[in-house]
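Handout, tutorial session.
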Amino acid sequence: MEILDSKTLKIMIMSAAINIRNNVDKINDMNVFPVPDGDTGTNMSMTFTAAAKNVAAKDDEKSVSDILESLAKSALRNARGNSGVILSQILRGLWHGVKDCEKAGVIEIKNAVCSARDVAYRAVMKPTEGTILTVVREVAEYAEDNFTEYDDVLDFIKVLYDAGIQSLKNTPEILPLLKQAGVVDAGGCGLMTLLGGAVQGLESGKAPEIIPDTSEAKSGTAAISGDIDTADIKYKYCTEFLINKDGDRSAAQFMAAIRPKGDCMLVIDDDEIVKVHIHTNHPGFVIEQAIKLGELTNLKIDNMKYQHNEKIGQNSSNSESSLESDENTPIGDVLDFTQTAKTSDKKKYGIVSVVSGDGMSELFDSLDCDKIVEGGQTMNPSTQDILDAAESIGAENVFVLPNNKNIILAAEQVNELTDVNVIVIPTRNMPQGISALAMFDDGLEPDENAAAMNEAADMVKCGQITYAARNSRMNGLDIHEGDIMAVIGSDVSFVGIDMESVAVELIRKLADDNCGVISIYYGSDITEDSAKELAGKIEAEYSDFDVNLNYGGQAVYSYIIAAE
């Protein structure tokens, strides 16, 4: 066969989908920490099968380029897990390599494979060798070096498959963790399973039959023991979703904002959508940044530590281990970090935050704050208000974030009035509360959480801008009613008459070489256009910083600005 047409390509795609479906359990059993985000076989199969179904509906008269375009775009929208996203990029590269081609010969297939390598490597921030990336790279290198020796498409694809199998067998020599577990790379195995199925379809002209699940199929290479400690999992939540972008907006700022919050990050900006995958301890923060780009769909958050424990059989049937498992239940499509344990009517943790402003309330809510008490400067809630909120959650331990120095004392009285273990994190402003909340981890003990949250709050330097309500003198400053005041801590740092210039000067006082992020929260009296103009000037002056602009909607303070 010298030329591959769209009808044959569709058979190859269907055959590949069925082949990986038949081998899901075998691939899953090769999963090895540190990337146990779901099951590789399941993720790759569901990603490819969804895309293949879309292709099956296409007209046979479509071009090879059209078929691969449909496959790639559908795979991106349906990509699951790290392996699914990388697979979608390999398919995207195949499509780019044959763009505008009606049919494909050996040269076009060589171009497609090389393009698949290039696109896949560009998609991964920190490529790891000994993985699916190595396999696709070495197949591409073989294609580049040997394509001139072939004029038959079937023969060429078969030798590419052989080259991929050899590369896959060598992955344990490149990645020690694979050798330790006695397996090859699961992602690479999934890729070669797909290619093997495609070869079968090309040779026979039809897709293979689906085989039923059997114990033999499920056994695979499941020799992985508990030698790999889940304590080594630095980032616990595998977070992935699609962003349907609002207009023609770049994902660059979003990527910069979430990069410090995790690893295994993949952000694929593809025309109308952005596909996001990241391992993080702060999925709420990632999502809050994402909604600035557009609406979210296909949201999935999984607890990888729980998954790993379940896989290696560490969940025993005794009450102690059952309680531990429930506390680490994967949270799926709902952002609920405080699952209820079966052995108690109460969940382990709850969080109460005192917040001012509708934008701030939405932000705290997105970070999974259980109860928000309205309050702040000029409207301090009572101890009873905070007590009612804490007891309404139904949790054994409740963290309270006062977010104002005048509310801390009232919050500290709550613990004496309830059987709930109330832990006050003495946050003095809302940015401190946001950072503290982002550090909360329901897998930690209360004292560990308190230490981490306090440390995060202490890292935040915050300033606020407001108008002087009357004439006064403070810190050697003559202040007149209506002056614009920059407040750092409890002190007026300086005054001015122009809101933007005061904001710029305040940021200069807060930001230093130890900071990397500037967050600007604009209040109810500031227009969005004015806030964006300020943020633009700050981005120009602090090009090495991540500058985040958020609508806070708070009263009293026109701007709340944080540097950390």
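The second record follows below. Compare its token runs with those of the first.
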Amino acid sequence: MNFHSKKKLRREFQDFYMISSLPTMRIGLFLTLVLFTCFVIFNYIFFPDSPEQFYYQRFGIISPVLVISILVTYFRPLYKWLHLIYIFLNLLVCVAIFNVGIHSDFSQPGSEYYYTWVMLVVIGLFVFYRMPFYTNVIIGLIQITAFIAATIFNHTLAQKPFFFYNNLFFVFAIYSIGFILAFMFRTLNWKNFLHQKAISKNNLQLQEEINERKQAVVALQLSETQYHNTIDSIPDWIFVVDRNFHVIILNSSLKYGHIGSGQVANTSGKSIDEILPFMPSDTIDELNYVFDQGKILVTEEKISFIDTDVHMEIRKVPIFNDRDVIQVMTILRDRSKEKEVEALKQKNAEQKEIMLREIHHRVKNNLAIVISLLNLQLRNNTDQGLVRIIRDIEMRIRSMALIHEHLYRGENLDRIPLATYLHSLATIITSTFSGHRVNLVTSLDVTDVSIEIALPIGLITNELLTNAYKYAFPRHQDGEIQIHLNKAADDQLTLMIKDNGVGLPDSFSMDSEKSLGMFIVKLLVQQLDGNIDYSGRNGTSFTIQFRNLLVKRQVFL
């Protein structure tokens, strides 16, 4: 601890020592005043002609000091001046000691009470007044000096040296006792102060930990709610099983179909065979494969459901905790209608193209309707947190809608000009953040990709570019964002999004579950069988490398 910190701590302790001692000091001073007054009144009534009565009355010169010392403890605005007030009052006591002593005649009866009164004043200084320790010591010495000076001027030293030194010895003895008491009081209060300060610090840390835990619980609940809402919003049938093949989640679409088929409504803790008897016989083997290999498994099956044959695409997706697969999500998508459409497309290639374009056009329009519905939902919504969430969802939908617009407007229905698509997407996002003074620079190699590549790349670009506009340039400062798409000779593509903003926080991690956006980016990069690198120094940059495979996969997206 440096000098300034120690000085600040001492000053804080002195304030604590003074304020915490005010009730005790107030009671002590009040009792002293009452006892002294009662003693004087008692002697005045029963011994009015006593020569000592003269001294009792003169000692009353410090009564105003006691009264003022008590009164100032009741006025909080004076607390910051208490030290100076008590120093001034005790210096007045020093004057009173000298004034009473210089007019004392040692040859008169009762003069011996003078040094007793001085001893009481000295001990009262150390016991009652919680001034800085060295201030008490100095004022006590001044009081003794006033006593010595008074006894010298009233000729006690010259005429009765034994009487003088004997009294002085007792005064110094009382001073020493008061010195020790004051030191003990201060030491005990210093330990108490440090103890309370440590307790306050621990309480503050504990409260911060409690708040962090509450925030973590709220964030977890929000994340779980978003997770369930997202799954329930998907029209596909989705269920999640644990390693014991017990179903722990059924989305709304599958739940309605499950109950509609005459199955029991309570599915909690039951096995997949009990809840979903229509699943293929090799389902358990496939789930075991996903649990062991940690890879996505996609198959197509024809299953019988309510006396109807349904062509299903069954996608089994592993859910990881660290590196272990703890659950598997199975997504069943009805492909029966698509099979019929494919049969019709084989009969007439031109009709196929027209239908595909119409599908993409309608998907684009439907996504536009979803965006409009989201905007309508936001009109009377004052929850800024929900507004941000819906805006993020809207931007993701726009990135997907833009793909469908390129497909139905383009010449080829099986490929998308990635450079044109990314440029259009960047333009939409830039217009959304039109209030930012940020310059967007693009360098995009011309290349065509399939929708399987364009969709995750669009979502990744949406997340990273939106985050750059939101967080890279606080307070709308000037900056620059660059988007680069480079094509190598071996069909290797590299997408880089970087800015010259404030960079990433030290706690940033792609594995963090707190950021839904980064979680999406990570999953999408895995879907591309690519890899992602990032840097948070001198701004932020994300680099995604993936291979452009324009082949028809035997899976459905």
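Points raised in discussion: The first strand starts at residue 237 and ends at 241.
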